[in-house]
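Note to self: keep these together.
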Amino acid sequence: MTIGRRWSGNTVLSVLLATAGLSGVALGQEPPAIEVGPAQPRDCRDGVIYDDGTAENGYSGDSNIVSNYEVQQLVNPDRLAVLPTTMCVQLTRNAQAGNLDFEVVAYDGTPEGGPTTELGSISVSARGIARFPQAQWFEIDITALAPKVDTPVVFLGVRWDPMQFPGRFVAADESRETARHPSFERFLPAFGQWDGMTQHANYRAVMIRAKLDDGSPPPPIALSTEGRWAQGLHVVDLSWKGATSPQVDILRDGEIVTTVPNDGRSTYSTERRGRAVYTFQVCEAGSSTCSNETTVRFGGAPGTPSRE
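Structure:
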């Protein structure tokens, strides 16, 4: 596998074992407003997700000539009047240093035409980025964007200076099984002007996810799930709180698959193998009092824990 760096439509491949020099914040630069560390397994699994949980590549700008690189992921295709509250981004590196100062940037736009109007940004400082082929999720509270946004946020992404932070990359899903979703990028050469936003030819989805808040109250039951392999089969561990009935129904893809005692946790085997995506929900038995829905994704080979 390789980590790609693009500029003006040309792909430059960097050797995975190559190391970049240590880099830091330039003198006079304002300190980042938010500091984040590795968030695994908190990876916006209840939010808007297009990737399959497995990163095959990573992208940035060429650190020799690009002074700003930006990548955007569609998070609100219907332009709903909702505010993203949390963004998760998966980062990787082939540099020695595992830090990155970047901006989270919100845009209006359309799925077909891409990002158009920048709505606002906040500064973030990430520490503990994993070295490729590993990649690390970072979860960011972006409610500070609220005062800056007066139209629907359609795209969310990240922007940083590859010259100051070479060898850092946003991870990308390039699996053929993943449907292509609108993701865009652009470059600011050190000696020129910003390129226009262009859709990348290779990745199916960049590893950027978001949670949206439509103002409705949270569900009465809070559910979380974790997928794993057991003897080559998909197994899902469920945990919940808030249910008051003696028993709860477990729903997979909208259908009740089992009813279990309400002790706050259960393990369910799908008896399936290979790549798959499931949606789970817990309801008080025989009622419509239900939890949030969670998505569990299995990708890769048995023995590798799923990211969802």
